[in-house]
Amino acid sequence: MVKKIIIVGSPNVGKSVIFNYFTGRYVTVSNYPGTTVEVSRGKGKIDGQEYEIIDTPGMYSLIPITEEERVARSILFNEAPEVVLHVIDAKNLERMLPLTLQLIEANLPVILVLNIMDEAERLGIKFDIEQLEKELGIPVIPTVSITGQGMALLRQIIKKGFTKSRVNFIYDDFIETSIKKIENFLKKEYLISKRAISLLLLQEDTEIFQIVREKEGNILEIEKIVRNVKENYSRSINYTISLRRHQIATQICSRVLKEQGKAKTTLLEKISRITMNPWTGIPILLAVLYFGLYKFVGEFGAGTIVDFIETDIFENNINPFVTEIFSRVIPWKVIQELFVGEYGVITLGIRYAIAIILPIVSTFFLVFAVIEDTGYLPRLAMLIDRVFKKIGLSGRAVIPMVLGLGCDTMATIVTRTLPTKRERIMATILLALAVPCSAQLGVIFALFENNPKALFVWLSVISMVFLFTGFLAKRILPGEQPIFFIEVPPLRLPKISNVLIKTYTRMTWYFKEVFPLFILASVLIWFGQLTGIFELVIKLLSYPVKLLDLPEKTAVAYLFGFFRRDYGAAGLYDINKAGLLSGNQLVVAVVTMTLFLPCIAQFLINIKERGWKVGVSISVFIFFFAFIIGFFLNMLLNILGVKL
Amino acid sequence: MKCNLCGYEFDEKESIPVCQSCPLVKNCKLIRCPNCGYEWPAEPDWLKKIKERRNRKNVKR
Predict the structure, then answer these.
(1) Domain spans, chain A
(2) Cα dihedral sign for B30, B36, B38, B43?
(3) In CATH, what number does A3-160 get?
(4) Fold for the domain defined by A173-256
(5) CB–CB contact B24 A402 (8 Å)
(6) Could you give the ipTM of this predicted complex?
(7) Distance of residue A69 Cα from the nearest chain B Cα, in angstroms
(8) Chain pair A-B, CB pairs under 8 angstroms
(9) What is the pLDDT of residues B6-49, one digit of tens each?
């Protein structure tokens, strides 16, 4: 039987060049049985010994996601290779090493091919190859396949032969014990190690489950072990195991990548440090908020662009034009209302989406892209972490909070990673209460255009509410050390192309998401008007609104806010633009709206993540809390005689 | 790709299993870091193709 060499690795690492080097012209390309995935097979001779060389489709992990990966794994597991060449891009050793670990765990005869060494060297990356071989227990060959560098050595190693790795990569005790237990239940023979089979079973690989079931028959005990492991971890086992492999890869890299020598502290490094120190970092954050968001988003985005699109284009041209057309063409008042009424699809839904939200979030995303591209975000997370620790909150709660600035709904899902139920509930409340999402934040800054004092009051109140809840957390929650590690990349000047691409992709994604929802909201409001539900809800909401000394129309904005946070803020923007709000009323309205019930998506997630009782209780608490804070703020401003 | 928040390096495909747990939608075209959950929209295909073409040209050079 012809011995086989299987070439595996991620796409674009030079597998095909190595395949061609060994096979020359003797190649066949055919679909893998039962799939549309093409596999190249060829014949090659090494020192007179003939081999079948197989070039597999790109794969990232032994847990397949795509059909290509499934085929690659199937070849690896079923064709009993003499040699497995794992080809990796030397520049990305850390990222690609986890697959090497998996291949070693599977007891496959692996050679690690560190390809594209020339580019790695150009970047100043140096490897301790001997140490890497020791760490992995397999031969490691540095190559530049396109020039043939290192290929002779690779040929020589294959010819000479080598022993399989005996290195074991250790997971946590619970997983290790479970692996041993599963291994004991695996009585039949497999082409890969029982340890690898056990790990794949723990990762709930359905294909492996099927193979094991066919071979072993009854696997109830194994299923019980897998269930037990699953119940003991808050995150998926697949993620826990992958994370551990990444940690092992990082540890190995720290030992095999040679240091380049200590560099002098640069100006950017100095700036980097002061952004993370609470004493200097908070003023820097305030400056970023003031100049980046308030001045640019609020004054330029809302002041100039919105004014132009909303007033000049919509109010003066589009709205009168479509209203005229609809009143001429459609005789039914009800249908006219749906499209061009007070809350019509065109006169409100499309106008809000295009004339108010789009310019504001576009300018916001532009600033956000600059912030992201400079590497300021991880520094902001570090800064918040330090402030959190000072008020006694668990450091790991930082991540959902920072994510909440993007989207609170997704951040609520991330609170799953918090270890205790109390922490999860507290983080959910904080997110729903005091963390405005990016779109709402953009419109809020736009609302305070030309009124920095009101902005300052809003920021102070929201910060105080946040800190108050934080202190509450200190009393209720035990302080725990964060398990989350953030890699702080070098601070850098933003690249214009990156900033433009990021802004464009966010804008298009946001618009695609928001546009249908705004239309849907207009249709629902129209339906609510037809049935009288809308008036009823507005009437109910108008009572607390009146208590805050706000115009009754503000109730509509709060109802909008329940559809989407930014939709509500846009409603306030509209009311404010009509001159219906004084400075004091504006700040009271915005504070209440920021604290007010989360959007419908977040409300549903709260229920899904925390259950009916807790989810609804959080919403009820927030509803009353928001209006109470608004009420006291209004009272305080009146008592102190503050005019904003 | 590298997460802009936590620095975790992963492949775009790795973000797919994370998205499977999302109870909202599965086709929002957002890439979600499997480590910290930070999200950002995926680049459109036409932009990826331009980048790939440019990278290929650079490699040839």
Answers:
(1) 3-160, 173-256, 273-640
(2) negative
(3) 3.40.50.300
(4) Helix Hairpins (1.10.287)
(5) no
(6) 0.82
(7) 11
(8) 97
(9) 776 676 766 765 566 565 555 667 787 777 777 788 888 888 78
